[in-house]
Amino acid sequence: MAEKSDAFAAMVERLGRFIGLVGAVAFPGVAYQWGWPGALAFAFGAVAAYFNMRWLAGALLRPTAPATGLLVIRFGLVGGAAYVILETFGISPLFILAGLLTASLAVVLEVLFQLFYART
Questions:
Q1: Does the pTM exceed 0.85?
Q2: Triad 103, 104, 106: Cα angle to 5°
Q3: CB contact at 8 A, 7 and 61
Q4: What is the pLDDT of residues 16-58, one digit of tens each?
Q5: What distance in Å separates the CA atoms of residue 8 and residue 46, rounded to the nearest whole number?
Q6: Range of the domain at 97
Q7: Domain count, the chain
């Protein structure tokens, strides 16, 4: 059982690095194409994707009743922060959505990593 937990923890670490990598690679392009407000909204989405992945992984490793409640509260907090940013700066919500989708691309990179590197 410890082997599976260690493998899961290693995968979570790689996913975090992949989210950071995708966000860091895409950020200059977003800033160049759409300006700093869009790039900052993209960065907010990427950071939210990272913390959401970490919190979800923590809840899966140590499932408790409060962790379940925090899942619901977390989505409310991220949604509230996104709403405040969008209303304050008048930014398109697509930038935050694009930042949140960095987690999806990180999962694709993890699948490729597992296919080509981590064959066991």
A1: no
A2: 60
A3: no
A4: 999 999 999 999 999 999 898 889 889 989 998 998 888 888 7
A5: 21
A6: 2-116
A7: 1
